[in-house]
Description:
Blueprint: H1 3-15, H2 18-25, H3 29-43, E1 48-51, E2 54-57, H4 59-84, E3 92-97, H5 99-105, H6 107-116, E4 121-126, H7 129-137, E5 143-148, E6 155-169, H8 183-187, E7 191-193, H9 199-210, E8 219-220, H10 224-232, E9 237-241, H11 242-250, E10 255-256, E11 264-273, H12 280-293, E12 299-300
Parallel strand pairs: 3-4, 3-5, 7-8, 7-9
Antiparallel strand pairs: 1-2, 5-11, 6-9, 6-10, 6-11, 6-12
Helix pairs in contact: 1-2, 1-3, 1-4, 2-3, 4-12
Amino acid sequence: MEIRQLRYFASTVRLGSVGAAAAEHFVTQPAVSLQLKKLEEELGQKLFSRRGRQLVPTDAGRALAQRAEEVIRLLSALEADMSGMKELTTGTLRLGNTDAASVYVLPDVYRTFHKKYPGVRVEIMVAETRRLVEALRARRIEIAIATLPITERGLRVRPIYREELIPVAHPDHPLASRRGATLKDLASQDLITYPAGAVTRAMIDAVFAAHGEALRPRMEISSPEAMKRLAQAGLGVSILPRPVVAAELGRKVLKVIVLAEVLFEREIGMVFRDDDALSAAARVFSEMIEQRFGRRRDQKGR
């Protein structure tokens, strides 16, 4: 039994066809068919039955599929360990980050990684947390830097830092000069917020609800950059991470609305697939993140 046969077999089970498995491994369909036939002959078991145009594993096929995935994961982990012992001179690091993290938090880590491993290409997907989780599941990225909580099954979460979000507006806004404004005061203003369904929006909604108020935004936008520009233009109040608006506060084109006894705070974490070994590049990058922010205990989806 060869590992190549197990990989072809596992892909055929997962994708439902020999053609799709061949495409995934960049080989011809007859090459996959031949290896599957040899595997059946060696085991003395029929591994697939046909249902229309789709191949469906038999009882023996399902039993083998479970063990095959375990073997493949272990081998992938071994290969990653061996690769990690070599100097990273080539390869690709595929990351996913939220907008704010990519622009305001991670550039120093990017710089350190690039300086140490200039031959590694870095591809960064910038999106909201929900899309980053989808990209992780689809194996388009290896690590996501995203807003917590994330509770989906099959994912491993490593919290890395917390950040405060603050209400900001144009300096001429009525609440900008008032100290100790209440959440009720804020709720009555034109609010520019993250869209419904976003993790950060859920946190903000929860703070309003805990104080007996409802968030009724005037605008919903997924881009923190757009939100702060609209607030700067005098179109309303945005609640944004402090690093996002630090420069504008320094230039006095935005002003913090000081709230009495109200704190908006979110947690950011690294997210991985629970069933995959990280590539050497991804593992080194995650270690750099831990060195920058400190190591905390992993969490698993429910």
